[in-house]
Amino acid sequence: MDHATHAGHTPAAQGADAVGHDDAGQQHPLGIYFKIWALLFILSAMSYAVDYFGFQGLARWSLILIFMFLKAGLIVSVFMHMVWERLALIYAILLPPLALIVLVGLMSLEADYTHWTRILFYETPAAIEPVEHH
Amino acid sequence: MSQTTLTQNAHAATEPHSLDSLVSDWTTDQEVFKKVQWGKAMMWIFLLSDTFIFSCFLTSYMTVRASTMVAWPNPSEVFALTLFGQNIPLILIAIMTFVLISSSGTMALAVNFGYRRNRRATAALMLATALLGATFVGMQAFEWSKLISEGVRPWGNPWGAPQFGASFFMITGFHGLHVSIGVIYLTTIAIRVLNGVYDRNGKYEVVEIAGLYWHFVDLVWVFIFAFFYLW
Fold it and tell me: Which residue from A119, B13, B144, B215 lies 20 to 30 Å from B186 (Cα-Cα)?
């Protein structure tokens, strides 16, 4: 019903209304941006430290992923205002990328298969021994 | 036969699986994202599609890196710089990361000042963002020329798996293109802010929409930094 009463207005006027009053067009205290900014700096410094101090193996990969997801989450939720958006928009934008998990899963299986096929069929001493160090 | 077609056409708009209903549903004025400006919703949809493009690049990088039999060049050494007589690993990329995060910070502030109707502060912060973005592109140009002079090509490099160059140029090149377009985009909007265009039409959300694009560019870098440079 609310919808019907709005139908008479031009979309432009309606848009301007919404910005002016209702959701106040994403206006938030400045402090939160400075806090997130500082957090992003700290998290970036920590991910750089992972490389600088030469973490290897599982520790390296999990630390890289944790810092990456924390940074991405802070940027999307606060800088891009996603936490203050309506659920309809949040789901429309954040759910479709989950399909990428399938792509990554399939491609990692495929890569594994290619890798072992190469080992079986193109096996040469040069290829088996790493070029240098490690 | 033709009788049936006519009847179908008459009911087309109400028939939920007809082609006409598809067209009319998508072209009539309807709201899904309530109280979200149309431009903002569309920018989000564009960024969603861009997410898939970058994901395809990163996934193909994962595939070639996981399937190659030759050792992958160590990014920590490839992107090291000698500063003040010391060899510091990955330092250029770290600086680029901080530059881009800073630009995201100034952009977030610009959006905030935009909604406060502070014309000068908004334009100044947007121009600062564009300047930091241009700095980032400049450093990337330096990085590219350094690697090219060292013999990195899309088909090979002196240190290991030939796929390294292809992945590097595709991923960072596409991201750099996004940053460059962003610099132009932000500068354009900043000039319009300065000219008072949005004071007159009240559409300061244009600044927020430009901000979404810029934060997305920063977001993509977070993933490139983690997967290409740190992994």
Answer: B144
Question: Which residues of chain B does A30 touch, with a Cβ-Cβ cutoff of 8 Å?
Answer: 109, 112
> What is the residue extent of each domain of chain B?
1-30, 35-230
Residues of A in contact with B98 (CB under 8 A): 41, 44
Write the ipTM: 0.84
Identity (one letter) of the amino acid at A129? E
Quote the tokens at residue B57. 């690049």
DSSP 8-class letter at B50: H
CATH number of B35-230: 1.20.120.80
> What is the reported pTM?
0.82
Say how many Å lie between the first and final Cα of chain A, rounded.
Answer: 69
Nearest to B205 by CA among B134, B122, B130: B122
- Whether A17 and chain B come into contact, CB under 8 Å, resolves to no
Comparing alpha-carbon positions, the chain B residue that sits nearest to A58 is: B231
Q: CA A132, CA A59: separation in Å to the nearest integer?
A: 24
Looking at residue B104, its pLDDT comes to 96
d(CA B52, CA B146): 30
Lowest mean pLDDT among A41-55, A117-131, B160-174: A117-131
B152's torsion region: left (phi>0), alpha (psi -120 to 50) or beta? beta
